[in-house]
Amino acid sequence: MAKGKTNIAGMIGFWAFILGLVIAVVVGILAALGIAGGIMTAIIIILIILGLVIGFLNITAKEILLFLVATIALIVVGSVFAPLNTLGIGKILDSILALIATLMAPAAIVAAIKALWAVGKPGD
Question: How many domains does the chain divide into?
Answer without folding.
Answer: 1
